[in-house]
Write a structure and sequence with these properties.
Helix content: 25-40%
Shape: globular
CATH superfamily of the largest domain: ATPase, nucleotide binding domain
Number of domains: 2
Structural class: alpha/beta
Oligomer: single chain
Number of strands: 21
Length: about 450
């Protein structure tokens, strides 16, 4: 399988060899680091043409290495592209980090916060597609014929098909939980033509071919794909942390929770790639360290974590934990200034102490979410937490275990690409279901990087 995995800071194209009886073997054949770029008016957009070119380079490298049975695509959530009548992009997609949604509360107040949550079950964040579309240039919208979330925008590039996948659609705060379809009421509230939104299809659907290779929908939202590969046999008491640019902390459950308690805690109900709900909360993640790292001249990330691990964990940094759910960390002009100000630290604080403060803050924020999950009578106590993804450093896992008081299981670094590939395997009939696909996972999957 070829898993195309677009993260908000790095894209990867992976070959994943699957077997019905053995563990997956994953090879990253192409990697490209990126970030949003300002357009002529200063708004942040993705350098989409370059990202597509890098993806095609990765696909060429994957095909050169041997036969390919299927291709699947996942990306980060909430962002989208607009296609005109000729199937061309109206403009490069906006980045969710652009400040155009800072006035999102006006939409919330117009719709009603409780009504919005009861309809969609999605946490209130200014980055939600609902708020992005409300702020979108009306001229661009008038020229559009289709709106595609980013995973399906890439699928369209491969196949020419216009579609939506359930997990990527579910990040928008435009899908009605009761119907599983786009909400006409919410689209009317932001004056968006429902005809722009394509039909929603489940993961595993074959949507065309690229050079004779089948293209399947997978968990288009990267977190949905990552959770597929969270572990070989997660117990009912297991929670997860998908660690990358963001920390996504939650658990799998059969039904959504739109209770007032969940709303006030700002939890989100996102569709699972193969059914069920991922009940979770977003916390700032590796984005905090990456933002500060730029101010220090971009030293190697491994060196920063090594020096942070050496800081006395009983010393002063423990008094400077920050709230990693604070919107101030979404798109600051100077991340180091924002972190040090929030922590009450001097701007010139040594990098080791700042990184240690960030890690402790991430662990504390995660532990608080786990505590909320564990006190939910319907779901029961959290008995273990699976941490996977590139942002799950050993120091973070150690500090999380200390703060949460439950076992922390280290999952695969490339969990998203693995989950992407496992869904393709199910689509092709290699595995009968999710449990059988997960059963092939090693505790420490073999990843060639």
């Amino acid at each position: 399988m070829v898993a195309v995995d677009f993260g908000a800071a790095s894209i990867r194209v992976c070959r994943v060899e699957l077997s019905a009886s053995g563990p997956p073997r994953l090879e990253v054949v192409h990697r490209y680091h990126h970030q949003p770029v300002p357009d002529a008016s200063g708004h942040l957009r993705w350098d989409w043409a370059r990202l597509v070119d890098e993806m095609l380079r990765g696909l060429a490298a994957a095909v050169e290495r041997g036969p390919v049975a299927s291709i699947g695509v996942d990306t980060w959530g909430v962002d989208y592209g607009l296609l005109d009548a000729h199937g061309e992009l109206v403009a490069p997609p906006f980045s969710y980090r652009d400040q155009r949604t800072d006035g999102f509360r006006e939409v919330v107040d117009r719709v009603g916060e409780q009504r919005l949550y009861a309809t969609t079950g999605i946490q209130l964040l200014p980055i939600n597609t609902l708020f992005q579309l409300a702020a979108h240039d009306r001229g661009e919208l008038a020229r559009a014929r289709h709106l595609l979330l980013l995973p399906e925008l890439l699928v369209h590039h491969f196949t020419g098909e216009v579609c939506a996948e359930r997990t990527s659609a579910g990040t928008t705060a435009l899908v009605d939980l009761a119907t599983g379809d786009w909400s006409p009421e919410l689209l009317a509230a932001i004056d968006v033509d429902p005809a722009l939104l394509p039909p929603i299809a489940p993961a595993g659907t074959r949507v065309g071919d690229w050079r004779g290779i089948p293209v399947h929908l997978v968990g288009g939202h990267d977190t949905a794909s990552a959770v597929v590969a969270m572990g070989a046999a997660p117990t009912p008491g297991a929670a997860f942390v998908s660690a990358g640019t963001w920390l996504l902390v939650g658990r799998e459950q059969p039904q959504p929770d739109t209770s007032e308690r969940a709303r006030l805690a700002n939890f989100t109900n996102e569709a699972g790639a193969l059914g069920g709900i991922r009940f979770l909360k977003n916390l700032a993640g590796g984005w905090l360290v990456e933002g500060c790292r730029a101010a220090w001249g971009n030293p190697p990330i491994e060196d920063l974590f090594a020096s942070a691990a050496a800081v006395d964990h009983d010393g002063p940094p423990m008094a400077h934990v920050v709230d990693v759910t604070d919107a101030r960390f979404l798109h600051p002009a100077d991340m180091l200034r924002e972190v040090t100000d929030a922590a009450g630290l001097p701007y010139a604080t040594p990098p080791a102490d700042v990184v240690r403060c960030i890690v402790e803050s991430l662990a504390a924020g995660t532990a608080a979410v786990l505590d909320h999950l564990g006190t939910d009578g319907a779901a029961g106590a959290v008995e273990a937490v699976h941490v996977f993804g590139g942002g799950g450093s050993a120091l973070y896992r150690e500090r999380l275990a200390a703060r949460a008081g439950v076992p922390v299981v280290a999952g695969p670094v490339e969990a998203t690409a693995l989950g992407n590939a496992l869904v393709q395997g199910i689509a092709l009939g290699l595995y009968p279901d999710l449990a059988a696909a997960r059963a092939t996972l090693d505790p420490d999957p073999r990843e060639q990087r």
